[in-house]
Amino acid sequence: MVRYSKLAFRQTVFEYGTDLCWTPMILAKEFNRNNFARDSDFTLSTHGTQPPTIVQFGASLPLELARASSLAAPFCSGVDLNCGCPQSWACAETLGAALMEKRELVRDMVVETRERLRQDGWDVGKEKDMNSPKGRSVSVKIRVHKDLRKTMDFITTVLGPDQDRHIDFLTIHPRTKSTPSSTPINIEALEILTSTFGDRVPILVSGDVFTLNALPFTSPLFPPTFTSSSTETEQPPPTPLVNIPKLAGLMSARAILANPALYAGFDACPWEAVETFMNKVARAPLPFKLVQHHLSEMCSPGLGPNKRALLTRSERSAMMSCQNMVDLIDFLDEKGNISRRTPPV
Ligand SMILES: Cc1cc2nc3c(=O)[nH]c(=O)nc-3n(C[C@H](O)[C@H](O)[C@H](O)COP(=O)(O)O)c2cc1C
């Protein structure tokens, strides 16, 4: 997530069961040209756990993506091309969602990148190299078109031949470039795309993954799990959910920001996740305002059905008025002690 998924946050979500962490979208052009851009965009752990990380690039030229990937490969598990960012500045530079109209270019970018990684000595044999320490993935994250046939053509081109497909996995955000995130994801499009391509490439879904026990579809790999931090009884969903059997993974953005313990089965952010995050921040520092913003997300009601918040509105406002890290830590210590003494009702 642009602005947010920095090292301390990635380490926090990894501690709570996230298998793969993404960096924010990094502009390949800047990454290639500037050492400082590399250091600030992609912080590494020099001590302790480096979570399995996918470095996501924004790029519009095969050579730019291949070079940036070559620089990132020693420090990550794989590289991903963003074909979903809808922001106008990105589209004007043929980055992000603009690439959904350039399927041959996207194919050329992933083909050149895979080849470059192979030449650099990395194992790029997809499933064959999954357990190799030198295994590196090349993947793509997309949105859908209004006319789903265009998305089918896009995926067909980018995948290439079945016997040696060009990408390791595909993440689908089933909204168009202009669909607001308040509109539910297009489950029908997801069902069609996964049933058409799910046997040929592992597909992850991005969008409306709010809690594991309230996904907007059913899927055999993701049966509901429940580690509730509340005593509320969950209501059964009003209509039967569509089954998406050929789904390989879930990606969460807004909800994991609010609840980094989402993949551990928590349906609302537990206080211990706040403490874990602050411990990570102490070792992998973030700008103060960013820390405050993360905390505000974690201490507000989340996106799932459980709307319990760690702090009341006025407590959150007091937290936001802290002027420095020392005051903020003191504030959290005090609230944390109270929260541990009084379990939520
Ligand atoms: C603050 C924020 C930053 C994001 N940054 C990125 C990004 O860098 N790359 C990307 O592919 N998607 C990015 N997204 C989009 C999400 O990955 C995701 O596709 C979208 O938010 C829908 O998922 P959600 O319902 O889990 O939020 C971002 C979303 C948010 C809210």
Automatic annotation (TrEMBL):
Its cofactor is FMN. Keywords: Flavoprotein, FMN, mRNA processing, Oxidoreductase, tRNA processing. It holds the Pfam family Dus. It comes from the Eukaryota. It catalyses: a 5,6-dihydrouridine in mRNA + NAD(+) = a uridine in mRNA + NADH + H(+); a 5,6-dihydrouridine in mRNA + NADP(+) = a uridine in mRNA + NADPH + H(+). One of its GO terms (molecular function) is flavin adenine dinucleotide binding. Residues 1-214 form the DUS-like FMN-binding domain. GO terms for biological process: mRNA processing. PANTHER family: TRNA-DIHYDROURIDINE SYNTHASE (PTHR11082), TRNA-DIHYDROURIDINE(20A_20B) SYNTHASE [NAD(P)+]-LIKE (PTHR11082:SF31). Catalyzes the synthesis of dihydrouridine, a modified base found in the D-loop of most tRNAs. Specifically modifies U47 in cytoplasmic tRNAs. Catalyzes the synthesis of dihydrouridine in some mRNAs, thereby affecting their translation. This is DUS-like FMN-binding domain-containing protein. It comes from Podospora didyma.
